[in-house]
Amino acid sequence: MKFLIFFIFAISTALGQNYTCPNDFSLFQNVCFYVGNNGKVITWADARLHCQSLGKGIDLASIHNAFEQAYIASQSHAKDTWIGLYNEAGDWSWVDGSLLDYTDWVKNEPSGDDPCTRLDQSKNLLWNNNNCDGVYGLWPFDTSITQYACRTAATSS
């Protein structure tokens, strides 16, 4: 049922409108998203730099509703994925400066002092705060984060 609602909403927002995205980005709700995979561990800062290198106005993804969350999760192919939420001096903020108007944290998160945020593949891609170096867990079972989600505004044509 959730998928059907998601699908109907996605189709209804796209009909009758002409928007374009940069190459390799996908259009969703008049916003462009890209999920990149580095193939090896990537820090949150390097993921952000990679997004920014793709063009003006592109940054790590901010997520503003359950539909965007579901869309990015579907594009991540069930892998840990950096997003643009970070904690500075106790305040959670989006890197693009947009309003933190939606959250989808794993139960009892955020916790600790880890300032960066990922979609957690072991927790149904809900949000989990993490250290920013791209590795978490205990050796020899540690896990590397290799993916990141980028966002930019679509342009109307």
From TrEMBL:
Residues 28-133 form the C-type lectin domain. InterPro entries: C-type_lectin-like (IPR001304), C-type_lectin-like/link_sf (IPR016186), C-type_lectin/snaclec_domain (IPR050111), CTDL_fold (IPR016187). Residues 1-16 form the signal peptide. Keywords: Signal. PROSITE patterns: C_TYPE_LECTIN_2. This is C-type lectin domain-containing protein. It comes from Acrobeloides nanus. It holds the Pfam family Lectin_C.
